[in-house]
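ingest -> validate -> predict -> emit
validate: passed (alphabet ok, no gaps, 151 aa)
predict: started
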Amino acid sequence: MDKLKEYEIATERVRSMSEQRQAASQLYLAVNTGIVGVFAFLVKDGGFSGWGSAAVGLPLFAVGIAACLVWHRIITDFRQIIGWHYEQLRDLEKSMPDCQGICTNEWEKFFKPQGGRERFGFSRLEVWLPRLFIGLYAVLFVGLLITQVGG
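emit:
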């Protein structure tokens, strides 16, 4: 296969996988937002009080945490796969004599680790969203328990 065609296929795969990762994040963000919304509705307007609100909250939080763990795994898997494809693109650029090396230049300017630390990356920030929701579920559940024990 000609190098240019291989390069085009690889860039299309990276674009497609990036869109899939974004769609997955949107879905899991909506699911977790919905879970928090349902919990808020049930506690505020659903007539649950006392230990009933904790009994309703626990399964919702368990589902939310499970969804967050799956979401986190999807993001990290996509991150590894997309990173591998970018590595292949940089290798292809080296083997193409008239190539401007756009992927290589972009990687060196924005993504190449410096001092052993990553510099930038949406997926690096995106991976914190499931962690944030897990923390939110923990805080909500602890808050529920405190209100039940103290109330």
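The chain is about 85% helix and 0% strand.
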